[in-house]
Amino acid sequence: MYWFINDDRAILEPQNDIFATALLVLGFVIFACVVSKTYIAQQDSAFALENYGQASLIAQSIARSQMLQGSRQDLMSAEKLDELSGPRSDPQTLRLFFDSFSPNVHFQADISTEDGEYVWHIRRTLSASSSMRQIAASVPVTLELNPMQQVPGTLTVKLFKERWDV
Asked: Membrane-spanning regions, if any (predicted)?
């Protein structure tokens, strides 16, 4: 047994040990990079999903809002949309509108008929910069253009945030 353990004829060269160690370290570094990128992607998806849920809740709340209600509870009034989205919209009314849904979240509401003939944009005075990220959610609505004409449409709420990890 002594001769088997102390046999010096099968010793590896030091250069082979360095090469094997370098390959092992390189493999570990690549594995760590892949795992970290996967974690970051999963985290971004989780934040996007959470913010999509918030945008969806705001869109549903706006669709049921009494501020925009037409002659029936399930209709949105085009006349009231004109008042909120026009260039001469009252800043106090706009602030009341946005604060009633989510005072701490920057969002805009876009409402359009299905055929695209009528489009309304309800925005705060703050404009979204190109560096802001956004997530949107849409819900179907029925728009009352006049007492005799109702058309299907879409209400889209866009959330704006500087960073999703806040």
From this structure: 18-40
Residue 8 lies in a domain: no
For residue 44, which of 106, 129, 135 has the smallest C-alpha distance? 135
C-beta of residue 115 within 8 angstroms of C-beta of residue 140:
no
Q: Is residue 16 part of a domain?
A: no
Tally of CB atoms within 10 A around 12? 8
Residue 102 DSSP class: -
Dihedral sign of CA atoms 146, 72, 59, 66 in order: positive
What is the tally of structural domains in the chain?
1
What torsion, rounded to 10 degrees, do the Cα atoms 14, 17, 23, 28 define? -130
